[in-house]
């Protein structure tokens, strides 16, 4: 579904990713761990075509996306749901306009039909339909992230979902709600997902495929059990503060 | 060494601005065209700046008329005040002052808005939905300024000339007929060409620089503040430079009809 082959990328003279290779199977959810600045978010932007790699190939559904023109990318991008760090909701638009934005922009559907889709999405997100006319600034952080997920999935059934730090800075209740939402999307829509986070405990319940980035290099790619027992120094350093809580998670050592 | 790095930085910024100008220029006439957003921006930029432009025109026109009525009186040429006012207002004062006022108000607003959108990843979110941010955010603002700045300049022309009329009547004690007759002598093709070409040039400057500064904002809230200040400064200086160059190059060519 998504394959990175020796992808390198940098901003100016600063190298962010070096020879990154990994594979996400159809319908699979992969979690990318790494400290801040390790290049996690850049991977998502590369998958969405928001930035182009300097070398290497990114293959999605068998197509080498590095050879795709910008105009073709504009038509493909709506099939890739992107939940940005902090939501990136359009702050001058209401919740309803945010969720229905892609439909308004990319289709000729009548307003009544778009509103019905927005209301359906709000119900799917376990959010009140009364929020439809509210500006995003009035919502809590957790609600904003849920609206952001809704905005990403309302337009079309996405083939791929990308989550950039979806639970960072949220309280445990909101974190659980977001995690459930991500799992529900995977089960209901069968999308392939990449989740970028450094919230280790939150991620273990979501998948069994983990990638660890350190300084722009993939230092681990494997399952949960392999991750826990990894000898890689950077992986151990990254897991050390959380190892006890990870071991205590149900299912980790079953 | 420091001056070399400043020059290098300036050259790089200029190169980025030129690259962006090409990108913007290529999109000005293509589809999709966001008509509703353009009209909204025209309202915001035009109607929102109207009061500012009227105030500017009124006070600049009166101040200028006041100064020149005194000087012209020394030469016994008070009746020529209308002529001087027409030349100064149509060719220089109204186009330049209107552009500077709009740059201060509108360029700052555009850069701050786009800069905030960039910092909060809203620009990337637009692209993720298959929307071209330059078409959606820059082209709409470009046409809004391109249409509204000449309109505001014409309004400023009228207000400034009328401001001069008030000074002529009540302070310089010139007859209204003498004032308006002298003004009309200078309402000619040459002055109309000069006075109406400048706002279109200034509109291109304001729209291009302010949107470019917004899109290239980096560094969070502090970066937005820095971009906004830089945008207003760059617009203002470029307007004054282009105004001089335009006057130097074009006015001699139109000498016969001015």
Describe the structure in your own words.
The complex is a heterodimer of chains A (254) and B (258). The two termini of chain A are 28 Å apart. The mean pLDDT of chain A is 86. In chain A, the strands form two sheets. Chain A has a six-stranded mixed sheet with strand order 6-7-8-3-9-10. Chain A has a four-stranded antiparallel sheet with strand order 2-1-4-5, covered by helices on one side. With 254 residues, chain A is an alpha/beta fold. In chain A, helix 5 packs across helix 6 and helix 6 runs parallel beside helix 7. Chain A is 37% helix and 24% strand. Chain B is built from eight helices and no strands. Chain B starts with a helix and ends in an 8-residue tail after the last helix. The mean pLDDT of chain B is 92. Chain B has helices at 2-27, 35-74, 81-119, 122-128, 133-170, 176-185, 189-215, 220-250. By secondary structure, chain B is mainly α. In chain B, helix 2 (35-74) runs antiparallel to helix 3 (81-119) and helix 2 (35-74) runs parallel beside helix 5 (133-170).
**What is the number of E strands of chain B?**
0
Compute the number of helices of chain B: 8
The percent of residues in helical segments of chain B reads over 70%
Order of helices and strands of chain B: HHHHHHHH
Number of contiguous helices of chain A: 11
Mean residue pLDDT of chain B:
92
Distance between the termini of chain B: 48 Å
The arrangement of helices and strands of chain A along the chain is EEEHEEHEHHHHEHEHEEHHH
Largest sheet: number of strands, sense, barrel closure of chain A: 6 strands, mixed
Oligomer: heterodimer
Which structural category do the helix and sheet elements of chain A fall into? alpha/beta
Concise overview:
The complex is a heterodimer of chains A (about 250) and B (about 260). By secondary structure, chain A is an alpha/beta fold. In chain A, about 35% of the residues lie in helices and about 25% in strands.
């Amino acid at each position: 579904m998504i394959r990175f082959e020796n992808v390198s990328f940098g901003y100016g003279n600063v190298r962010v990713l070096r020879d990154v290779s990994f594979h996400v199977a159809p319908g699979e959810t992969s979690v990318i761990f790494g400290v801040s600045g390790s290049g996690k978010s850049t991977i998502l932007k590369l998958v969405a075509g928001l930035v182009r790699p300097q070398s290497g190939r990114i293959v999605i559904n068998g197509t080498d996306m590095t050879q795709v023109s910008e105009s073709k990318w504009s038509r493909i991008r709506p099939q890739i749901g992107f939940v940005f760090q902090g939501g990136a909701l359009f702050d001058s638009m209401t919740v309803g306009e945010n969720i229905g934005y892609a439909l308004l922009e990319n289709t000729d559907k009548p307003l009544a039909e778009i509103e019905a889709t927005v209301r359906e999405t709000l119900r799917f997100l376990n959010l009140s339909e009364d929020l439809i006319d509210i500006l995003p600034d009035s919502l809590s952080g957790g609600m904003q992230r849920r609206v952001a997920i809704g905005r990403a999935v309302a337009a079309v059934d996405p083939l791929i979902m990308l989550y950039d730090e979806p639970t960072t800075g949220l309280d445990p209740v909101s974190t659980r709600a977001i995690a459930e939402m991500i799992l529900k999307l995977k089960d209901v829509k069968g999308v392939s997902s990449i989740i970028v986070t450094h919230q280790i405990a939150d991620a273990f319940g979501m998948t069994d495929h983990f990638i660890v980035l350190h300084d722009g290099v993939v230092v681990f790619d494997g399952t949960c059990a392999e991750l826990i027992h990894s000898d890689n120094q950077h992986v151990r350093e990254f897991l050390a503060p959380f190892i006890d809580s990870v071991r205590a998670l149900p299912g980790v050592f079953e | 060494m420091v001056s070399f790095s400043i020059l290098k930085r300036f050259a790089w910024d200029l190169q980025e601005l030129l690259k962006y100008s090409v990108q913007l220029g290529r999109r000005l006439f293509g589809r999709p065209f966001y008509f509703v957003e353009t009209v909204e921006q025209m309202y915001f930029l035009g109607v929102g700046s109207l009061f500012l432009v009227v105030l500017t025109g009124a006070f600049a026109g009166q101040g200028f008329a006041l100064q020149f009525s005194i000087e012209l009186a020394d030469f016994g040429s008070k009746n020529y005040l209308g002529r001087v006012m027409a030349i100064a207002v149509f060719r220089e004062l109204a186009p330049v002052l209107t552009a500077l006022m709009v740059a201060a108000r509108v360029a700052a607003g555009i850069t701050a808005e786009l800069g905030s959108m960039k910092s909060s990843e809203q620009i990337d979110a637009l692209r993720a939905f298959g929307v071209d941010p330059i078409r959606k955010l820059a082209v709409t603002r470009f046409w809004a300024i391109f249409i509204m700045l000449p309109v505001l300049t014409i309004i400023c022309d009228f207000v400034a000339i009328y401001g001069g009329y008030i000074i002529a009547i009540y302070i310089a004690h010139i007859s209204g007929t003498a004032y308006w007759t002298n003004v009309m002598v200078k309402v000619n093709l040459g002055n109309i060409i000069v006075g109406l070409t400048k706002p279109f040039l200034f509109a291109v400057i304001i729209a291009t620089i302010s949107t470019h500064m917004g899109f290239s904002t980096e560094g969070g809230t502090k970066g937005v503040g820095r971009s906004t200040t830089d945008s207003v400064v760059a617009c203002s200086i470029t307007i004054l430079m282009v105004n001089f160059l335009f006057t130097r190059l074009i006015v001699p060519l139109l000498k016969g009809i001015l």
